[in-house]
Write a structure and sequence with these properties.
Blueprint lengths: L2 H14 L13 H14 L2 E12 L4 E13 L5 E7 L5 E6 L2 E6 L4 E6 L4 H4 L7 H7 E11 L2 E10 L2 H4 L4 E7 L4 E8 L5 E11 L14 E2 L2
Parallel strand pairs: 6-12
Antiparallel strand pairs: 1-2, 1-11, 2-3, 3-4, 4-5, 5-6, 7-8, 8-9, 9-10, 10-11
């Protein structure tokens, strides 16, 4: 795997786990939504949740599901950490700390890593990110209010401004609880018409401490 492919692949994987101005959507008040996210982001310190992922491959018309847990934390200085633990036959552990993404594959007992500057905004997509940060990286359409499992959410369609990001992700649909600044559902649309859907349940917000054992990266770097 070349360095370019490795950087793009790991960065996209992290975005899936988990950069024109913005206008008003057809149904929602975008500026009000972004203001709510700004306010909720200021109160956000961490979130942990169960996550179910559904990866759809258009070419073979197949779905592949996986389950796991994720966390995201942000300290007083704004430093972000992220972890994703996927169980089952496609088990993976992914973390992001200090600008470095690592993806551990227990099947081969090693992990890939890459330094990726500026990825914080994508890591916090739907979890703790401010409305200001969202508007800097995405062209946003506010599609208005919706409800998921009894929780009121705002549905946003996001198109990346960064041409390199758009090579991997053409659009993201986001169902976000603007009062807590957490996502209940995300759908990533790829240029090849594949999709990756994540749904989040049992969200715990601003815990005193997060148990880190499920998110530990083990093994050695892959060569």
């Amino acid at each position: 795997m070349g360095d370019g492919m490795r950087v793009g692949g790991l960065a996209t994987l992290l975005m899936l786990a988990v950069g024109s101005g913005c206008g008003f959507g057809a149904q929602g008040d975008l500026q009000a939504t972004l203001a709510k996210l700004d306010a909720a982001s200021a109160r956000f310190t961490n979130a942990e949740a169960k996550v179910h992922r559904d990866a759809y491959t258009k070419f073979v018309d197949e779905h592949a599901g996986s389950d796991g847990t994720m966390y995201l934390s942000r300290d007083a200085s704004g430093k972000v950490q992220f972890g994703l633990s996927i169980s089952g036959k496609d088990a993976r552990t992914i973390d992001y700390k200090g600008g470095t993404v690592r993806a551990f594959n227990p099947g081969i007992g090693c992990y890939d890593s890459v330094d990726k500057a500026g990825i914080d905004t994508y890591v916090t997509l739907g979890f703790g990110g401010s409305g200001k940060d969202l508007a800097e990286k995405w062209n946003i359409t506010d599609l208005g209010p919706d409800t998921i499992n009894g929780t009121k959410v705002e549905k946003l369609d996001l198109v990346p401004k960064d041409a390199d990001v758009k090579k991997n992700v053409s659009k993201v649909s986001l169902w976000v609880d603007t009062d807590r600044d957490v996502s209940l559902k995300q759908v990533f649309f790829m240029p090849n018409n594949d999709t990756n859907t994540a749904t989040y349940t049992n969200i715990r917000l601003n815990q005193k401490a997060i148990g880190m054992k499920p998110y530990e990266i083990k093994g050695k770097p892959c060569k």
